[in-house]
């Protein structure tokens, strides 16, 4: 596989994670005690910090995106352990791992091809 394939995996993971978090916090299971907007700012805004560079394929932005995906992996793992319904946390873990490994391998293979 070349770098473009890994970037496609990372982009799929990003879109899946972003969509899942938006749907989970608004339609599927909205919070009862916190405002929805506040929860969306907390959960979704970290994904938007390096989004512009990530879309352009900037290697530094992709590296940061890999780092930013790890709290979502931890959150999904904890939720999968604590909840009876395991589908949404499992999807969060899957998408965060797709994002992490896609970004990591994209940076690794892009760095080799640019040298």
Radius of gyration: 15 Å
How many discrete domains? 1
Instruction: State the major sheet.
Output: none
Order of helices and strands: HHHHH
As residue ranges, the low-confidence spans are none
Tally of helical segments: 5
How much of the polypeptide forms β-strand, as a percent range? Answer: under 5%
Shape verdict: elongated
Structural class: mainly alpha
- The level of helicity is over 70%
Mean residue pLDDT: 94
Distance between the termini: 18 Å
> In total, how many beta strands?
0
Task: Set out the fold topology.
Layout: H1 3-28, H2 36-48, H3 51-56, H4 59-82, H5 87-114
Structure, described:
The chain is mainly α and 115 residues long. The chain has one domain. The chain contains five helices and no strands. α1 runs antiparallel to α2. It starts with a helix and ends with a helix.
What characteristics describe this protein?
115 residues; 84% helix; 0% strand
In short:
The protein is mainly α. 84% of the residues lie in helices and 0% in strands.
């Amino acid at each position: 596989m070349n770098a473009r394939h890994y970037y496609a995996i990372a982009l799929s993971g990003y879109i899946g994670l972003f969509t899942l978090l938006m749907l989970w916090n608004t339609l599927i299971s909205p919070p009862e005690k916190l405002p929805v907007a506040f929860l969306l700012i907390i959960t979704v805004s970290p994904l938007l910090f390096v989004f512009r560079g990530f879309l352009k394929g900037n290697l530094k932005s992709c590296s940061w995106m890999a780092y930013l995906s790890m709290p979502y992996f931890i959150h999904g793992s904890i939720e999968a352990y604590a909840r009876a319904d395991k589908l949404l946390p499992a999807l969060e873990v899957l998408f965060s791992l797709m994002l992490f490994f896609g970004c990591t391998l994209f940076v690794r293979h892009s760095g080799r091809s640019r040298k």
